[in-house]
Amino acid sequence: MPIFECLCKPHVLTEVTFISLQLTQKVVTHPLFGKALVARHDLPAKYRMAYWGIRGKCASCDVEDRAISFYPPNPVTGSNIDPKVEGGRTLKRNNYNGVLNPGRTGDVIQFAGCPGPNEKQNMRSTFQYYGLRNGIIGGLEFVTLQPVPKNTQLLHWYGSGKFALVLGDLATLFGLHFAFI
Questions:
Q1: Which of 41, 63, 153, 179 could form an S-S bond across to 59 if both were Cys, CB 3.0 to 4.6 Å?
Q2: d(CA 74, CA 80)
């Protein structure tokens, strides 16, 4: 089933669209580290899913949040990739438009972890954003890098800060399949 079939125009989206996109993942509770995102079903490589949230201002750095920067797509082409850069995956940085905050939206991709020392990422951002400049809601597409078996933790790299080692070597305590190297 093509996950974004209902998004025939990249800038057109609704809350119903995003909720329907998240039926393939589930949030589980780790006994030590809070929430984690796992695959509800086997996911194929290149499976697309969306992180989504309410567009707004970035919170103060001393406040924990799960917001990501928002770079809205061109309203005509639906893209925000810089075509002048070889490889095509470089984001245009001159159209920053606040952040997408998933708090109180029902988004589950916010619970995807950052790989620990013995884990590897199994999903990444595609740099394809959805939503309108100064709009209320927006999204960012993610894609699996390899087949992800049912109950496997979904991981993407988001930096070497305090959240990077949240699950780390203790991941096996969770009783799920983790994306180990």
A1: 63
A2: 6
Q: Which residue has the tokens 């697309």?
A: 48
Q: How many domains does the chain have?
A: 1
Using CA atoms, how far residue 50 sits from 7, 10, 59, 112, in Å, is 11, 12, 22, 12
Ranges of the chain whose pLDDT falls below 50? 1-20, 162-178, 180-181
Per the domain annotation, does 9 fall within a domain?
no
- What are 87-131's pLDDT values in tens digits? 655 566 677 888 999 988 888 899 998 888 888 999 999 888 888
Q: Could you tell me which residues are beta bridge partners of residue 123?
A: 144
The Cβ-side half-sphere exposure at 116, using a 13 Å CA radius, reads 15
Domain of 169, CATH number, reads: 2.170.270.10
Residue 87 domain boundaries? 15-174
pTM of the shown model: 0.73
Q: Which 3 state secondary structure label does DSSP give 16? A: helix
